[in-house]
Amino acid sequence: MHHKATTPTRETSRSPEELMAMIADTLHRTVVHYGLWWQEVEAQFGLGEAITIERDVWRKIFGLYVTRLGRILGFEVDENGIPMALKDKSPGELQKLLEGASANWLASDGLWFQEVEQRHDLPTAQECNNAAWERFSPFEAECIRSLHRITDVDPLSALASALEQRLYANINKYTIARTDEKTLILYMNNCRVQSARNRKGLEDYPCKSGGLIEYTTFAQTIDPRIKTECIGCPPDPHPAEWFCAWRFTIEVGHL
After folding, report:
1. Residue 253: pLDDT above 80?
2. Which conformational region is residue 229 in: left (phi greater than 0), alpha (psi within -120 to 50 degrees), or beta?
3. What's the rounded Cα separation, in Å, for the pair 206 and 191?
4. Quick one: average pLDDT of 10-36?
5. What confidence score (pLDDT) does residue 13 get?
6. Which neighbouring-strand residues pair with 130?
7. Residue 160 belongs to some domain of the structure
8. 214, part of any domain
9. For the segment 76-123, what is each residue's pLDDT rounded down to a tens digit?
10. What is the pLDDT of residues 181-195, one digit of tens each?
11. Is 103 helix (H, G, I), strand (E, B) or coil?
């Protein structure tokens, strides 16, 4: 069967509803395609090189994306692709936007987990979750180090600064304590995921295996000399004042 060749035109027979659905799905396809490129680059060159390549791609593509949308929708952007309207927002308004974006990230993570668990089982969902965090945690650490220019010569001070810039830090309550020159402890006082489960009358989600991967790879990306130890994390029992706690250490001779 032969199909008549067509070229895009400004006029279309599609309804506004169909066009809006297609615009939304364009974002969907773009996100998936971006992730597939990441997956293949990591397979070809390893995680470290994938992080480096992706960082340079994102720097170029973000401004391109937003600038093009600005021309179409009629909003101005600065030379970095940041919408000028954001510059009229107060710090409080921008903080709320940051918290909302971080909550959306966590919702995405949770929905992936739930969908796999429902279609397969809990152990499979945990396996997928751990594999995702093994890649995301060092990626996030590298993003933070680059964005916030974290170059402290003291590895644990650098780690403390990096932990304060995580997406989790925008939506969870935590405490960071430097107990001595070779020890840093993070207490997750209120975890959004676990608190939601508790409100529903559910037991804590057993996240220790994922947490060990998450915090170990994050800390080692900041400085490979940092060692990570779990003080307690579900299914471990824990006091009311925190859900999980992590100890980061470095030998004094390495400072």
Report:
1. no
2. beta
3. 13
4. 89
5. 83
6. none
7. yes
8. yes
9. 999 888 999 999 999 999 999 999 999 999 999 999 999 999 999 999
10. 999 999 999 999 999
11. helix
pLDDT at 251: 81
In this structure, are residues 250 and 226 in contact, taking their beta carbons and an 8 Å threshold?
yes
| Euclidean distance between CA atoms 174 and 188, whole angstroms | 4
Q: Is residue 224 part of a domain?
A: yes
Same domain, 79 and 107: no
Given a contact cutoff of 8 angstroms between Cβ atoms, the answer to whether 220 and 159 are in contact is no
Nearest to 155 by CA among 116, 181, 192: 181
Query: What token pair was written down for 121?
Result: 């089982």
Residues with Cβ within 8 Å of residue 186, at least 6 apart in sequence: 163, 174, 175, 176, 215, 245, 246, 248
Dmax over Cα atoms in the chain, in whole Å? 75
Closest CA to 187 of 246, 141, 236, 239: 246
3-state secondary structure of 225: coil
How many domains does the chain fold into?
2
Edge-to-edge order in the sheet of strand 173-180: 173-180, 183-190, 244-249, 227-232
pTM over 0.85: yes
